[in-house]
Amino acid sequence: MNILFITPYLPVTGLHAGGVRMHALIRELSRRHRIFLVSVADDEHLARIDQVRPLCAEVRTVPTALIYRRLPVPPTLLPDLIWFEWSCPLVREEIRRVLARRAIDLVAVEYEVMAHFLPRGYPSVLTVHELQSFRAASVRRHAGDRRRARLLREEITWRRFEDVTFGRFGRLISLTPEERETILRRQPWLRIDVVPTGADGSYFRPLPDAAEEDDCVFIGSFGHLPNADAARHFCREILPLVRRDRPGAAVAFVGNGADRELDDLRGVPGVRVVGRVDDIRPSIARGRIFVNPVRLGGGMRGKLQEAFAMGRAVVTTSLGAHGMEEYRRGGCVRVADGPADFARAVLELLGDDGARREMGRRARRLFEGRYDWRILAGGLDRTLEAVREEWACARGGGR
To answer: Which domain holds residue 85?
Structure first.
């Protein structure tokens, strides 16, 4: 097939989990299909464009600087975020250029913010990386009184947008069963497949000789609000409880934007802010426990798959465990909500080396059979083929 991907940033690695997912799946799909890409791109992503060019028959980009609007929001269904940051007509022009010159068989849109760019007359899928109405609701629950009214309006606007937009696609792809069920409760007629986020099992492998120098480690892109909130929540509410019983306990925050977004945590006893590193594997291996204390957002946390692939013990909130039911049933992860319960789970694992290492071994075994990118890409490929065949049948064999 000739597949046109429409993405809000370049599918490259080293910056955030969404880019890693898109890059890995496009890499696998490119072995069987011709990939065409239209993407918004800032300078940081453009510096990595050589990661994706070899995978695509054509790559067309729109500079981030050209997409922002400063005009008031008109009376449309578009949420504010889309109007101000993701509604540039230049993106639509680049899509038209590709469609005019190429025989595209299927359009694959990544993220809700790009859904309104869907061209008419093509079989299509939309990957919902994070259900925006769910994200807004989770932020509202933890917001102060002054922000709740604005966040409620944002949640309602996203719901309206989703209710109108999702039905335009031949199939939705959700990252977790939980978000799939949330959408189906509102729109039970939609067809939704689950394609989880995975990891590269040949790259993320256990490092048995690595010295465990940090009690806890949290990896993420800290320009993303849920990760920055999780780091502060851990430091303010959970770490003091851990250090009360284990005074020397420490946590390291590693990832893009940590040095900028978490500057206020420098100097907090037991906290190490590392920032972005070229290779996160040593940082994951250095932590006795991989913690994921997220309270906001949705989707599936790719960083957990990387930790499981490396055979690490994980403690996460139930929100952070969305899409991880197999790991939960297999005893590969501790799920705890509330500062006291989370701290207790961390302390129990820190105090039991055998249980911690056995948890990591079970996680690696489960990962190998289910969540490597090569396995997940096969499921996505079958979904794309089915969408194209359904479209052809519905139109009597052709577009």
So the answer is: 2-198+373-394
